[in-house]
Amino acid sequence: MLKKIFTGLLLSLALLIVAALAAYLYYWRPALAPIDPPAATAFSPQVVERGRILAGMGNCAACHTAKGGAEYAGGHGLATPFGTIYATNITPDRQTGIGRWSLAAFQRAMREGVGRDGAHLYPVFPYTHFNLVSDADLTALYAYVMTRPPVYAVAPANSVPFPLNLRPLQAGWKLLFFKPASFQLNPAQGLDWNRGRYLAEGLAHCAACHTPRNALGAELAGSSYLGASIDHWYAPALTSANTAPLPWTQDELYAFLRTGATALHGVAAGPMSAVVHEGMGASPDSDIRALATYFAGVAGAEQRQVDTDTVVKAGIARSQRVSLVDNDRGASLYVAACAACHSNSDGKPAALRPELSLNSAVSAPDPANLIQVILHGLSKDEAMPGVLMPGFAASLTDNDVAQLAAYLRRSRSHQPAWTNLEAAVARARAGK
Predict the structure, then answer these.
(1) CA torsion angle for 309, 311, 317, 318 (degrees, to 10)?
(2) Residue 86: phi, psi to the nearest 5?
(3) Are 266 and 366 in contact (CB under 8 A)?
(4) CA dihedral over 363, 369, 372, 378, signed as positive or negative
(5) Which residues does the UniProt record annotate as the domain Cytochrome c (predicted)?
(6) For residue 12, what pLDDT is reported?
């Protein structure tokens, strides 16, 4: 019996090795010849400017810039279940950046996840989305990054453990989860919808944050835009599964993506604030409206018949009633810390001081966003620029924050109660 088990294990191991080798050979790519960095004058100002706007849509700086570091010089750590992966230097530095990359090498990295040296890139770099980007847009992006100031900067070593750190294993991941494709127009939809889909599913790679992932880090098939926890925040569902009291209409989506705030849903905070203000801030209105058109369709907003006035009035009425029951620490904290700004007095919701009964963070299935904002507030550069919300991390204990969040959930939402709130607060405070 032991001999049969041992033989079976050997055969299974042999099959795995053969499969891994086959995947590696299938996805093997040669190194591409280095070039001398092209002069900045080799690119037209119009193409460089187009690349700048596209880089914003892709939010490239957010990942490729370390806190306090030079823009695009890498070093920003991306926490994954497999360890921390540090973004690389994409300035045109010859030694540590991509100064010796040709356009062909750049396009291959974007579309196939392969570096100039032939090494497979980790899929934390979203080439699974960038492969949909057109030749013209990739050329403009290349022109933009190659005209940035070169910076000598070596990214820290990744903390991915052996054997997951072996680059050839990424070939097996690709065989399982990556199907290269080009963007195809949907003739049944209009130009705005198709433009929005091209941006959302390609360069903006929205699904990379808003889609849950499997145990190997790939986006779950059939679960696009259903919401996911990421970087100690929660990226909500962008489909009809979104639990916001009011549907995300095209106008609401446009207002949120353009300004970072909407009276009927709340404000952009955390990573999403950077997407809106630092990323898409330079994008033309036509692209923002195209994204809003596409995601309104994804959410099925047109099919949801909701009496907005009734929902708003009911929400404001709930907010004006504070239930100070015996030992209700959460209600007391709300009166002391929140009511002065968030208690509506004129019967109309306002973007600057969101109506919490309509706020998406309060109705979300995950409390992370609400907890983060209670702890750390909103700086003058987040949400709507110039508007400040103080954080309460120094004045409220984990139990205080948990009770406040629980009170807001039960008094401002019809969704089920959150569980293990105090543990969630402790994780958020520790940045875990």
Answers:
(1) -170
(2) -100, 130
(3) no
(4) negative
(5) 46-149, 191-299, 325-412
(6) 43
Q: Which residue type is seen at 245?
A: P
Q: Please state, in angstroms and rounded to a whole number, the distance separating the CA atoms of residues 144 and 213.
A: 32
Q: Is the predicted pLDDT of residue 378 greater than 80, yes or no? A: yes
Residue 74, strand partner residues: 65
Whether residue 36 is predicted with pLDDT greater than 60 in this model: the reply is yes
Mean pLDDT of 20-44: 81
End-to-end CA distance of the chain: 46
- The pair phi, psi for residue 80, each rounded to 5°, is -130, 165
List residues bridging with 233 in a β-sheet: 230
For residue 38, give both structure tokens: 């092209």
Helix H, strand E, coil C: the string for the chain is CHHHHHHHHHHHHHHHHHHHHHHHHHHCCCCCCCCCCCCHHHCCHHHHHHHHHHHHHCCHHHHHECCCCCCCCECCEEEECCEEEECCCCCCCCCCCCCCCCHHHHHHHHHHCECCCCCECCCCCCHHHHCCCCHHHHHHHHHHHHCCCCCCCCCCCCCCCCCCCCCCHHHHHHHHHCCCCCCCCCCCCCHHHHHHHHHHHCCCCCHHHHCCECCCCCECCCCCCCCEEECCEEECCCCCCCCCCCCCCHHHHHHHHHHCEECCCEECCCHHHHHHHHHHHHCCHHHHHHHHHHHHHHHCHHHCCCCHHHHHHHHHHHHHCCCCCCCCHHHHHHHHHCHHHHCCCCCCCCCCCCCCCCCHHHHCCCCHHHHHHHHHCECCCCCCCCCCECCCCCCCCHHHHHHHHHHHHHHHCCCCCCCCHHHHHHHHHHCC
Q: Can you give the pLDDT at residue 300?
A: 87
Backbone angles phi, psi at 342, to 5 degrees: -100, 0
Question: pLDDT at position 15, please?
Answer: 44
Report cis status (omega within 30 of 0) of the bond before 81: no
Closest CA to 35 of 104, 84, 86: 104
Q: Cβ(9)–Cβ(154) under 8 Å?
A: no
Residue 427 has pLDDT above 90, yes or no: yes
Tell me how far apart the alpha carbons of residues 214 and 21 are, in angstroms, rounded to a whole number.
23
Q: What are phi and psi of 79, to 5 degrees?
A: -75, 130
Model pLDDT, residue 323: 63
| Chain segment 346-376, per-residue pLDDT in tens | 656 666 677 888 899 999 999 999 999 999 9
Compute φ and ψ for 37, nearest 5 degrees.
Answer: -55, 130
